[in-house]
Amino acid sequence: MEILGYVSAILIGLSLGLIGGGGSILTVPILVYLLGVEAANTAPAYSLFVVGTASLIGAIIKYKQGFVDLKTATIFGLPAIAAVYLTRRFLVPAIPEELFSINDFILTKRILVMGLFSILMILASVSMIKGRKNNEKTGEQKFNYPLILIEGLVVGVLTGLVGAGGGFIIIPALVMLSNLPMKMAIGTSLAIIAAKSLLGFLGDLSVISIDWKLLLGFSGLAVSGIFIGNKLSHKIDGSKLKKGFGWFVLIMGILIIVKETVIN
Prior knowledge:
The chain has ten helices and two strands; from the N terminus they run ααααββαααααα. By secondary structure, it is mainly alpha-helical. It has one domain (about 1-264). α1 (about 1-20) packs parallel to α9, α3 (about 40-65) packs antiparallel against α8 (about 180-200) and α6 packs antiparallel against α7 (about 165-180).
């Protein structure tokens, strides 16, 4: 199972390189079910580091291609970064291990985190299956600051709780709220995800014990997958691949809900 977990790390990066997202949504399930990482606290923290590192490499590639808007990344990223850090540093440690019980069912911290994560997986899968509509607007770039602030805070809290990058939420928001072209929104999203994930991870350093050997090895394999995926992206139809991957993520999300609430 451990070998399969490390091989899956390459697939995470491969997905990011091929279709610009999606792979990071599988990081927590891979860490929990294949590598045995503790689900409620440690796996989301590790995921922040893995997703942040992989997204940073992807953002650098996009920046060199001219597809990162640093002004937009700063405006959207600052509230998201603050929310992630505060969530990991204060909110997550404050959540009790058992929240409440109804008859024989006990809502634990693990079930809460994995349940939220599976819901995000299902939402992400629907986004990948349906595909993104071209809602790009023409004209001067304008910022809807109140909505950008709210969106950044919401994405930041969700990222802090479950360790997911949230690109499937950020990219449409950048297109609609910042009037960015789609290619620019994808690159800018990677920069935002990298910043908020890596800085949010700092909130865990004084809270949990880090297995650096596992984390750095896993992250290195994910990064190698990005370079492989980036090369293959010119030869493979990304839209068809994204839909197939979306169905896989949907099934995984449903299985996680069943495993955490019914089987256990």
